[in-house]
UniProtKB/TrEMBL annotation:
Residues 320-450 form the Mur ligase C-terminal domain. InterPro entries: Mur-like_cat_sf (IPR036565), Mur_ligase_C (IPR004101), Mur_ligase_C_dom_sf (IPR036615), Mur_ligase_cen (IPR013221), Mur_ligase_N (IPR000713), MurCDEF_pg_biosynth (IPR050061). GO terms for biological process: cell division; cell wall organization; peptidoglycan biosynthetic process; regulation of cell shape. GO terms for molecular function: acid-amino acid ligase activity; ATP binding. This is UDP-N-acetylmuramate.
């Protein structure tokens, strides 16, 4: 039996890939600094052997791994990583594993600053429902309780989330550089990850490189409404006339009449002289754009319309995408929005649905804690009645780096420049107490960020539930 070990198995993508290998009959083990729900539950339910900390003897139990998949926790202080290097154990980053075991001759990559995870998950679901038997990987947990990664047996298609963040500590290329796309779904481009891409031009260049392998122009499906994509196409050999477009109007595929309720979303997709009514249980009017892009790609590669519409109506979305964690007198919502732009979009959607006050707790990702990201916070939280910045996750920093990342107090000052009710609460219990007592019936509390908020969501729900 082949064996694979994951250093840093508790990430969403790493855990999903581990389970995909397990389902293919591999012996799978994994290690990480800590294990918390939902990932720990996800691994246990799939009978994956894992342990906390780094222990070479446990990694080598049962024999030398055929592959060691190393996440970002693999560094010069990690004994498992050092052992793999010193003893010629075959080690790979997870994008390299995706390239070797998941990429098919027809490789669809869903890329963009935002919308890529939801789009890759939905497109995987659609093509599976339509009988394409795709391999796939997306970096989120499905509310439909399907694994986030799958290696197909006989299919010739793969659907992969194309992340622009660096592949590994030792590989600064974007993850999508490994995926050899033959088809590309482009959702949006807006400068992000300032910790990796110090200028907007540097960020755009990696997307220019992503377009290079695409041989047939019509195999690119792009959002025409996005100014970043428009800018990208202007500096490549492509134009909006060449590629398949989707947008609110004046595109190959259009989405119109979006209606958002507590139960979900409905709208119409138009293509040529046909109109298709779409009903989705997902929250977020912005999801109409993601759904339209997936519809366009699936339709372009030959999926039957009735299968596409059926699949969309059954797809419940991803956890931590405006996920309702508690619904009572006060509603508690969890969302992965970790940038000002994503937070703004989530808050705009909530304002469409809820009439009460919105209390937002926000923690940005690493790149959006850099000083150069400050302008992007202007008016990002206009739809929130109160913005709370908690204690931010501690970052490893270079003592010689002149651009120190924002701490919670710094960030609250930046947001306060355009928002009168932004504050930093430096104690988790004080934050929970405030949120358990300040909101009134009909109000909404939303946690926005890629980190887990140290269990505060569960503790808050216990207090107000």
């Amino acid at each position: 039996m082949s064996k694979v070990h994951f250093i840093g198995i508790c990430g969403v993508a790493m855990s999903a890939i581990a389970i995909a290998f397990h389902k293919k009959g591999w012996q799978v083990t994994g290690s990480d600094v800590g294990f918390f729900p939902p990932i720990s539950t996800y691994l246990k339910n799939n009978n994956i052997e894992f342990y906390p900390g780094w222990h070479v003897e446990k990694m080598m139990k049962g024999g030398k791994p055929d592959i060691v998949v190393a996440g970002n926790v693999a560094c010069s202080q990690n004994p498992e990583w050092l052992y793999a290097q010193e003893h010629n154990v075959n080690f790979k980053s997870y994008p390299e594993v995706i390239a070797e075991y998941f990429v098919k001759p027809n490789s669809i990559v869903c890329a963009g600053t935002y919308g890529k995870t939801s789009s890759s998950a939905l497109l995987s679901w659609i093509l599976t429902h339509a009988g394409f038997d795709p391999s796939y990987m997306f970096g989120g947990l499905s509310c439909n309780n399907i694994n986030s990664a799958q290696m197909s047996e006989d299919g010739n298609w793969s659907v992969l989330e194309g992340d622009e963040y660096k592949s590994a500590r030792w590989d600064n290329r974007p993850k999508f550089a490994h995926y050899s796309p033959t088809h590309l779904l482009l959702t949006s481009i807006s400068w992000d990850h300032a910790d990796i891409y110090s200028t907007e031009d540097a960020y755009f260049r990696v997307f220019q490189q992503l377009l290079l392998p695409i041989e047939e122009k019509k195999q690119i499906v792009a959002c025409k409404d996005d100014p970043g994509i428009s800018k990208l196409l202007q500096v490549t050999r492509f134009t909006f006339q060449d590629v398949t477009t989707y947008a609110r109007r004046d595109a190959n595929y259009t989405f119109t009449n979006p209606q958002q309720t507590h139960q979900g979303l409905s709208f119409d997709i138009g293509h040529k002289n046909e109109s298709y009514h779409i009903v989705s249980p997902m929250l977020g009017s912005y999801q109409a754009e993601n759904i339209c892009g997936c519809f366009a790609m699936a339709h372009q590669i030959g999926a039957p319309v009735e299968k596409i519409v059926e699949a969309i109506s059954a797809f419940k979305g991803l956890k931590r995408r405006l996920e309702k964690r508690h619904e009572g007198a006060v509603t508690v919502i969890d969302d992965i929005a970790h940038s000002p732009a994503k937070a703004k979009s989530a808050l705009q959607t909530l304002r469409q649905i809820y009439k009460g006050k919105i209390f937002a707790v926000f923690e940005p990702n690493t790149g959006n804690r850099r000083p150069q990201s400050a302008p992007s916070y202007s008016h990002a939280f206009d739809e929130a009645d109160e913005v709370i910045i908690p204690v931010l996750t501690k970052l490893k920093t270079d003592p010689e780096d002149p651009d120190k990342p924002f701490d919670g107090q710094d960030l609250s000052k930046v947001i306060s420049a355009t928002h009168s009710n932004a504050l930093h609460i430096a104690n988790d219990q004080d934050l929970i107490t405030r949120l358990a007592t300040s909101p009134q019936p009909g109000d909404v509390i939303v946690f926005l960020g890629s980190h887990g908020f140290r269990g505060m969501i569960t503790e808050l729900i216990d207090k107000i539930g």
